[in-house]
Fold:
Amino acid sequence: MANKSKKTNVAKRDVFKWTERMDDAFIDALVHQQRLGNRVDNVFTTAAYDNMLKELREKIGMPFQKDHLKNRLKSLKNNFKECFDLFSGASGFVWSPETKMFSGKPEAWKAFVKAKPEAKKWMTTQIAHYDKLVLLFAKERTKSNGDNNAKQKAGQLAISGSGRYFDGTDRQNETALHLDLEDLNEINDGTSQLATPVEANSQADSQAHSQSATSLKGKKRMAPKVDMFEREFKNIREAIKDVADAIREGNIIAERGRPRVYSEQEVFAELMKIGVERHLRYKAYTFLIANAGRVRAFFGCPAVERKEFLLQMMYSPEES
Structure:
């Protein structure tokens, strides 16, 4: 009996198919709840799910359950993760909200797919609302990838014989990072001096084993550089966050300082609400909308006194 019930539940979940319209509404709801602060440590709160369920049921008219939203959120995050990890930092590609796809020149795609064959499917595969998914998940992915990327880049610098770093996410460009002998000796606290190129060439045949040992030491010497990269990435992330917070706070202050603008429909509706007689209503409406200052004064007055204040404005000697 239990197995039968389990199969029935699975069948119901399989029948519940997500459409583009459902995704549109769900992603907008996710962004809205995040802006309201209903997401803590990258996890949406119970209140967020309750709000989203109510909103989606009203908009779509389907019996959404919390598990539906959680499962879809997981799918959206996985798709975004795949795209973000592939295209983040890659030059020559841009996501288009019209086509909902990444686009680039043929030569850029050719080099990119050659370096990363898994990118081929994204030449013809859509990912809708990528710009909004960035708002939802990019910070989380950047945090999880940041330390690994720093260590990987530093490790490649240590291993590379030419001292040049080739960025795997942008196969068309090489970033030359020069590490001279003074830098390496300084990293090593001056305890060991590296041979000059001439000395190294003269000892090449007789010291193959020694060079292998030196290579291993070189990797260890790069450890301080790895720490330096990690600190720099952390400082950059914190600086960007501070700037975003400052902009957000400035927008809030600007909104508070901006006077409320009332529409003509609001003015007419308020005249009816306070009981202005019909034979005076049109005249009062024309009188108010002719001057924005009159509208602000009218709505600034307490609701119970607005009618009397309006008549005073209309028929006082100063206004006539």
About this structure: Strands lie at 39-40, 43-44, 93-96, 101-104, 164-166, 174-176. The chain has a mean pLDDT of 75. Residues 264-315 form one domain.
